[in-house]
Amino acid sequence: MAISMQPHGIQSMLKEGHKHLSGLDEAVLKNIDACKQLSTITRTSLGPDGMNKMVINHLDKLFVTNDAATIVNELEVQHPAAKILVLAGKAQQEEIGDGANLTISFAGELLQNAEELVRTGLHPSEIISGYTKAITKTLEILEELVEKGSETMDVRNKEQVVSRMKAAVASKQYGLEDILSSHIADACIQVCPKNPVNFDVDNVRVSKLVGGVLHNCTVIRGMVLKGDAVGSIKRVEKAKVAVFATGVDSSATETKGTVLIHSAEQLENYAKTEEAKVEELIKAVADSGAKVIVSGGAVGEMALHFCDRYKLMVLKISSKFELRRFCRTTGTSALLKLSQPKPDDLGFVDSISVEEIGGSRVTVVRSEDGGNKVATVVLRGSTDSILDDLERAVDDGVNTYKAMCRDSRIVPGAAATEIELARRLKEFSFKETGHSAGEVSNESTSALLAVKLLISCIGHVHSDSCVENLLQYAIAKFAESFELVPRTLAENAGLNPMDIISNLYEKHASGNAKVGIDLRGDDPEDGVCKDVSTVNVWDLYVTKFLALKYAADAACTVLRVDQIIMAKPAGGPARRDQPAGMDED
Amino acid sequence: QPQIILLKEGTDTSQGKAQLVSNINACTAVADVVRTTLGPRGMDKLIHDDKGNVTISNDGATIMKLLDIVHPAAKILVDIAKSQDSEVGDGTTTVVLLAGEFLKEAKPFVEDGVHPQNLIRSYRTACYLAIEKIKELAVSIEGKSLEEKKSLLAKCAATTLSSKLIGGEKVFFASMVVDAVIAIGNDDRLNMIGIKKVPGGNMRDSFLVNGVAFKKTFSYAGFEQQPKKFLNPKILLLNIELELKSEKENAEIRLSDPSQYQSIVDAEWNIIYDKLDKCVKSGAKVVLSRLAIGDLATQYFADRDIFCAGRVAEEDLQRVAAATGGTVQTSVNNIIDEVLGTCEVFEEKQVGNERFNIFSGCPSGRTATIVLRGGADQFIEEAERSLHDAIMIVRRALKNSTVVAGGGAIDMEISRYLRQHARTIAGKSQLFINSYAKALEVIPRQLCDNAGFDATDVLNKLRQKHALPSGEGASYGVDINTGGIADSFTNFVWEPSVVKSNAINAATEAACLILSVDETVKNPKSESAQGEAAASAMAGKGRGRGRGMRRR
C-alpha cells in the first residue's frame, strides 16, 4: 500500500512491516464492508427456508449446513473486524446453542445501516451512543412482549417442550421439525434431572446410522454403541454389568522381564498356571453375579475363552468418554483392575443386544428404569452430510431445552417480535431528543475484543447540541435493522419481502403484536401473515435477548475502531508459492 | 482502493444460480455414467483403477465407489448409493438415476429464477405422496405357507438377478439364494452366508451347501492318511497352535546341569502331546484351528483317524461354530461336550481343481454357503456381487413382506398418480410436482433405451394403460423380452416395496440437499498438503479393503 512505502507519521514510530490503517474511509468503512460481506454469506441461511452452504474445510471435509455457527467456524474468517462478528456468533452458540445466525446477520445489518449514517455525516461515536440507547430500549420492549403465562412451565410436559423447541429445530430442518422435535423432547425429558437447571446436554446422545429415512429415527433410553460384541454372546437381558477401565487380560508387568525356568516341571506348568489364573479372575467376576463385562481396553483371547465359558457377554468400549457415559447409563463404577467386583460396583441394564441397523452392526444398551441418565436419538438418513446436519439440529434442540430449563419465557416467533420491536422502537426514536444520552458502557464488549485490534477511543469531544437530535437517526436505523428478519425470511422462502413487511406493519399497527410470517401456508396469495399463536411458533425469550445484545455489542465494537495496526506476522518470509498481490491489507 | 480480504487466501467461493446449476450439471454427469447399467439389458462397466485392478460390474454402488468422485455435490450421489446398498442392498443404480433426474428436471426452473426452496417443498410433498402410494399398491406376502413364500421370494430375487451378469441363470440362482436366506432364519447375520468362488466349470455347477464349506487349508505330511468323510462327527474348534514351539516369548531356560537338558526337551514334547491327547480324549473327530496345526499334530491325528485343518480363516471358523453349535476354544484344558459341535456329514470334496471341506446337515443350521463356479475371475467377482444384492433383497422382502410390480410399472403408476394430484394444486407447486412425476418416468424410459426399444413408443403405451380409469393397468411395465408392455405383476417381475420407497426417499433427500445449497466455499488445504494426500490415499486403500469385507 502506498502509505506503507514512505515512513512518516505514525509509520515512522513502528517497526518495519507493521500495517497501519486509520480514518473513516480506511478503517471504519472497510471494517463495515468486511462484516457486511460475512453477514451476506450467513444471511441466506436464516430461517426455516434458509439455504444451505457447502463448505469444504482445510481438511477436505464436506459440510452441507445452514447452521451459522458451523459455517463461520469452518469459513476461517481472516478479517479482524469480521472476526468480531464471528466471536459474537460463537458466544451465542456457546451460551444458548441456537440463534447464532440471528446474531451475525443482525450485527451485519446494523453495520450496514451504520455505513449509511456515516456517509450522511454522522460520527461513529454518535451512532454508537444511538445504538446503545436503542438496544437498551429494545430489551425493555422485548421483555414486554413476553407471552403471558409462559414464565412457568413444566419441563417434563412434552407438549410444552415441543412448542418451545419447534421453532429452533424448524430453522435447521424445515419440514421435519415435527418428528425431530418430538424425538428430542422425548430424549430430553427422559434424562432431565430432578432439578432441571442442572440439565446436561452431554446426556442426550446422537447416533448417526446411514441408511433409511428420518421417519425411522427412534429414541432409545440408554446408549447405542457402534460395533459388535466381542464374544459369542450377543444378547442379554436384565443383567448386572461390571466395567473394567483397563483391558480384560492376564496382568502383565510393565517392566520388561524374563521368566527364568529351571526345570522341566516348571516349564510344563508355566502355561497351566497362567491359564488357571485367568480362569480364576473371570470366575470371580462371574460369581459376583455380573453377566456383562465391559472392557476399556483389549480383551485377551484366553480371557475371552473363559468369558464364553462362563456365559459372560463382553463389550469393548475404547473411548474413555464413551466408557464414562456407559457407566452413567448403567450406574456402574469402573474398576481399574480385573478382580472380583463389589456388589456396589455393579451396574444394571435391562438389555444389551447386538442389532443390525441399516447394514451396520450396533450394540444397543437399554436401561429403561431407575437411574438412567443417558438417552440416545438414533438418526437415520441417506448421506453423511444429511446426518451431520440432522445432528446439528438435534444439538440445537437440546440446547434450547437447556435454555428453557433455566428461563422458560417465550416471545412470538416468525418475525412477529422483530416487527413489533421495529415499530415500537421507531416510535421511540421520534420522541428522542437526546437529553439523556448517557454513555452506557458495555462490559461484554471488552470480552469480544480478543483480536489483534488496537482500539483507540474516539478523542473528539462533541458539542452537546449536535448529539441530541442526531441520536434519533441512529435509533431509527436500529429499528429499521429489525426488518432484516422478516425480509430475509420472506426472501429465503421465495416470497415478496416488500409486500410482507408492509403487510406486517399494517397488522401490527392495528394492534395485534403477534402477527408473523407463516411460511407453511399452502396458498401463498393469502394468509402469509398470521397470528403466530394460532400456528404455534414461539422463540425463547432468552435466545432472542442474548442474540440481540451480542449483535449490538459486536456492531458497536466494530464501529468504535478507528485505527487498525497490524504487527508484522512472526516467522520467516511468507510462502511465495501463491501468486503475489493479494496481501495489501 | 485495495480489496477487502475476508477469508483466507486461496479460498474458493462460488454462489448464486450459476453455482447451483453447475452442481446440478455435475450430478447429472455422474448419473449419466451409471445410466446405461439399469435393467436386464443394462451394460456393464469396466473400471481399471490406479493399482491395475480391473472390475467389471453393473452394480451402481460398486461403480460409484470405484469412480473416486471429487466434486463435492456429486459426492452426495455416491453417499446415497452407498446408503441404499447398506440399507436395502439393491436399487443402487435406480437411486442415483432418480436423484440425477430430479435435479435435471429442477434445472430449467432454477435457471428461470424459481427459488429453490419452492422446489424443495414441492419435491418433499411429492416424495411423501409417492411413498404413501407405494404402501397402498404394495402386496403383502405375509401369512402364506413356507412353500408359497419361497416361490414368491424367488421371484423377487429373480427380478434383481435378471439385471445382472448372471441373469441367464436367474431361476437357478434365485432358488439358491432363497434357500440360503431361509436357512439362516431370523438371526439375519449376513456374514452367516458365505460365498466361495472357485474358477472353472460353468455357472450351473455352482451349488449351495446347507452348512459350511471352505477351501482345504495348507496341510502337512500325514494329511493324506486322515479319513476324509465322517458321519455325525464331533467337531472341535480351536484357537491355539498345535505345534512344537516355545510356550511364551518371555520365558527363558537356564540350566546349570547338562543332564537336565534332555528333560527340558522331553517336557516340550510332553506339552504338545498332552494337548493332542486332550483333543483326542474329547472325542472329537474333526479338529479345526484358526492357527497352525503342525506336522507332528497332523501325523498324530492321522494315526487316530481324526481329521484336522489348521489356519482356517476366522470367519469360516465362526460360521462353523454357528452351524455346528460348538464354541471356539482357546485352551485344550477342560473340554466339555457342550463346546463340541456336530453335523450330519463332513467330507472333503473336489470342486474344480480345489479341494473343499464341507460340513452339511448342521443341527442349528444357521448358516449356508454358496459355492460359485464360473469362467474368468472378474466374472465370478461380479456374480458374487449380484448374489449379494439378491440375498439382501430376499432378506428385506422377508422382513417387510410386501412387494410391488417391477419393470417400471410402479414408477409409471406413481408418476400418473402425482400428475393427477398436481392438477388439484393451484400455484407453482403444480409445475414442480409434475416435473417430479416426469422424472420418475426415467426408470421405464431407461429400461427401454438400454434394451434398444423405442422409449417414446413404449412410454406412451404405458401411459395409456396406466390412465385406464378402471385401474387394471396399474401394474403394466416394460416387457423386456418383446419390446412391448406387459403386466409385470402377473409376469412375476417383483420388487420388495422397501427397495422402491427407500430409493425414492434417498433420491429426494439428495436432490433437496443439492438444491438447498446456495454457496460453496472451499478452503485451501492445510499446510501438510502432502500428508493429506498420503492420508487420502490410505483412506482409499482402507475403503477398498472395507468393501471387500462387507461383500462377504
Automatic annotation (TrEMBL), chain A:
Question: Which InterPro entries does this UniProt record tie to the protein?
Answer: Chap_CCT_theta, Chaperone_TCP-1, Chaperonin_TCP-1_CS, Cpn60/GroEL/TCP-1, GroEL-like_apical_dom_sf, GROEL-like_equatorial_sf, TCP-1-like_intermed_sf
* This protein's record includes keyword ATP-binding: yes
Please give the Gene3D superfamilies that the UniProt record associates with this protein.
GroEL (3.50.7.10), GroEL-like equatorial domain (1.10.560.10), TCP-1-like chaperonin intermediate domain (3.30.260.10)
Q: Where's it found, cell-wise?
A: Cytoplasm
Q: Which of UniProt's keywords are assigned here?
A: ATP-binding, Chaperone, Cytoplasm, Nucleotide-binding
Gene Ontology CC entries for this record: cytoplasm
Pfam families attached to this UniProt entry: Cpn60_TCP1
Q: Which family does it belong to?
A: Belongs to the TCP-1 chaperonin family.
Q: Could you identify this protein by its name?
A: CCT-theta
Name the source organism.
Gossypium trilobum
Automatic annotation (TrEMBL), chain B:
Coiled-coil annotation: which residues? Answer: none
Provide the primary localization.
cytoplasm
Q: Which domain of life is it from?
A: Eukaryota
Q: Which UniProt keywords apply?
A: ATP-binding, Chaperone, Cytoplasm, Nucleotide-binding
| Listed PROSITE patterns | TCP1_1 (PS00750), TCP1_2 (PS00751), TCP1_3 (PS00995)
- Record keyword Transferase present: no
> Where are the residues of the annotated region Disordered?
524-552
Q: Where is the composition biased (Low complexity)?
A: 526-540
Looking up InterPro entries in the UniProt record yields:
Chap_CCT_eta (IPR012720), Chaperone_TCP-1 (IPR017998), Chaperonin_TCP-1_CS (IPR002194), Cpn60/GroEL/TCP-1 (IPR002423), GroEL-like_apical_dom_sf (IPR027409), GROEL-like_equatorial_sf (IPR027413), TCP-1-like_intermed_sf (IPR027410), TCP-1_chaperonin (IPR053374)
- Compositional bias segments (type: Basic residues): 542-552
Cited function? Molecular chaperone; assists the folding of proteins upon ATP hydrolysis. Known to play a role, in vitro, in the folding of actin and tubulin.
Protein name (database record): T-complex protein 1 subunit eta
- Species, as recorded: Gossypium trilobum
| Lineage per the UniProt record | Eukaryota, Viridiplantae, Streptophyta, Embryophyta, Tracheophyta
